[in-house]
Design goal:
Layout lengths: L1 H8 L10 H9 L2 E3 L18 E2 L8 H9 L5 E3 L1 H26 L3 E6 L3 H8 L4 E4 L5 E6 L2 E2 L7 E3 L2 E4 L4 E4 L2 E5 L2 E11 L3 H4 L9 H14 L3 E9 L4 H4 E7 L2 H25 L16 H9 L22 H4 L8
Parallel strand pairs: 2-10, 12-13
Antiparallel strand pairs: 1-3, 4-7, 4-8, 4-11, 5-6, 6-9, 9-10, 11-12, 13-14
Helix pairs in contact: 3-9, 3-10
Amino acid sequence: MLGNVVTQDRPSEVSKISTRLRDAILENWAETRDGSRPTLCPQGKISDEFWLNASETKQWCPRLYAYASLFDSAQQIRSAEDLWNMGQGTAYHNLFQNSILPVTFKTCFEGDWTSNEPYIQAETAQRLGFELSKNDGEKRIIECGYGAFDFQRGARYLEPKIRMPDYRMVVKVDGIIRWPDGAEVLELKTEKSSARDQLEVGLGGGPRAHHVEQVHIGMFATGIHRARIVYIFKGESSLSNSLLEHEIPYDEAIISRLIAKAKDCVAAVKACDDLRGGKSWEEMAANPALQDTESRIKWIDERFKRDNDCPMKSKGKARYCAARDLCFWKKPKTA
């Protein structure tokens, strides 16, 4: 009886299942970037020159950069799904850097900051472009400095960015925490909950190798010889279940290996710049070594060895490499 009354009072159509908004987002939300050729030649902005990003150590490969130098790069398209995942990572970073960490550590959480307030902008501007020379003579260009974060003045956090011209390496760190027993470079990474087994030491996993490499470059750049990788699992019901931490001690062997690889990558770009001889990219084809695809690939093959982690086009690092079609190129058969 009561059920009949409820049914009579309820509208005949409460809701209608629809995917209209989702479909519109998937169809229209995308980001397109033109590929750029790596070069060591001075450009209008220093950031337009060739730099090895610490977050991309998996991609550091002399052959890759040689192909990028001598061939037109395809446009990079980030789909709605790509942007959705990146946006979630940015949101978690903002939560930690602008809310959680400044309150938790106060003046012991360090980074740079910006604001619409003129006096804060002036203080920030004094640090931009500051050059720091370490005791060993290596130069550091500090684009975003680091110091105590003044949370009370309504500033927005900026991740410290440091360039190392000697090795063409650039790194942004998510923060620096000054613990009572010493400082740590902080790196925040978002992951799906299903990845926990791969990352939990107690379950036979550990931090991802390229994340360890990234924080080592951060430690090398700042001179701080301790780091903390914090994995944030998306969608967990509590803060306690959302975080997994790894303390990373400084390992000179890792840095030595990365520097050696960086030098090989820089040498590859320089060789391509020298081959070009200062001519525009459009004039390159005048050089006999660059007249066609086969000539360019032969020139690269003779100078830059394929990575051992790329046994074939569909396996290893090659599987997701932007240059895999060129790296495993086969001359078309003639009729």
